[in-house]
Design a protein that fits this description.
Blueprint (H helix, E strand, L loop, with lengths): L2 H5 L6 E7 L2 E10 L4 H8 L9 E12 L1 H16 L3 E5 L3 H9 L8 E2 L2 H6 L1
Parallel strand pairs: 2-3, 3-4, 4-5
Antiparallel strand pairs: 1-2
Helix pairs in contact: 2-3
Length: 121
């Protein structure tokens, strides 16, 4: 894919982090693929290691994810687990949820229908 083709793709990933009750909620919109894996990784992982990281990844706006996204989520899960924290996925659309289930990520990283359920699990 050329740079021009990448620039013309309307569904690039946008990331909006916020904190709800001490939990970082990262809301994503668009597509998760090789081109945006660094953006996703940076959004999920912070340099602040003073408190155990607790993260909810809101995938309700993600329309596509490939193995690059799976790899980032697994790496993020490993990092937060080592720091005594947790990572949960919320609101994955059917196609993204099927991918998570197909590769078994849902057995390692809890997947919830809503942000509220992920926060209260």
């Amino acid at each position: 894919m050329t740079d021009n083709q990448k620039a013309n793709r309307p569904n690039r990933l946008s990331v909006e982090p916020k904190v709800i009750d001490g939990v970082r909620v990262v809301t994503m919109q668009g597509e998760i693929d090789h081109d945006v894996k660094d953006v996703l990784s940076a959004a999920l992982l912070s340099e602040d290691s003073t408190v155990p990281p607790r993260i909810v990844a809101d995938l309700s706006g993600v329309t596509f994810m490939d193995s690059s996204g799976i790899n980032v989520f697994v790496a993020a899960y490993q990092q937060v687990s080592e720091a005594q924290g947790w990572l949960r996925i919320a609101g994955a659309q059917d196609s993204v949820l099927r991918l998570l289930q197909l590769v078994g990520v849902d057995t390692v990283i809890p997947c919830h229908p809503t942000i509220e359920q992920a926060l209260n699990a």
